[in-house]
Amino acid sequence: MVVGRSGGSFGQIHLVMKDVWPHNTAMFVTDFKDNDAYFAYYLLENFNFNQFNSGSAQPSLNRNFIYPTSINVPVPKEQKNCFHTSRSRHQNRTQQSHQR
C-alpha cells in the first residue's frame, strides 16, 4: 500500500499487490502485521489525513505525526469477513485495468 505524502498525491491511497519502488513523496506499508490489506486500504481511504497536514504552500504528511496515531480495528479474521465483497470488487477492477 502506498500513501501519497506531498502535493497533489497528498492522502491518496493505492493498494498495489506487486513489488514497486515508491517515490520520496510517498509513504508505504510492507508489513500489515497480520491485518488484512484490503481492510487497511478501505480504512485509510476513509481516514482524514488533512488533520496531519504539516505543509504551508502545498499539503504534506510528516510520518512523525502519523505514526503515534492509534486506531481501533477488529481482529484480522473479522477484517477479512467484513471486506470480502470489497476485496472481490477491487480484484475485478485490477484485472480489468491490466487487460486494457
What letter string, H or E per element, gives the SSE order? EEEHHHH
Strand content: 5-15%
Helix content: 25-40%
Helix- and strand-based class?
mainly alpha
Textual characterization of the structure:
A hairpin with an 8-residue loop joins strand 1 and strand 2. This protein is globular. It is built from 4 helices and 3 strands, in the order E-E-E-H-H-H-H. With 100 residues, the chain is mainly alpha-helical. The chain has a 3-stranded antiparallel β-sheet.
Jot down its keywords:
36% helix; mainly alpha; 100 residues; single chain; three-stranded antiparallel β-sheet; 4 helices
Topology:
Layout: E1 2-4, E2 13-14, E3 26-28, H1 37-45, H2 63-66, H3 76-82, H4 84-99
Antiparallel strand pairs: 1-2, 1-3
Question: Brief description of this entry?
Answer:
By secondary structure, this protein is mainly alpha-helical.
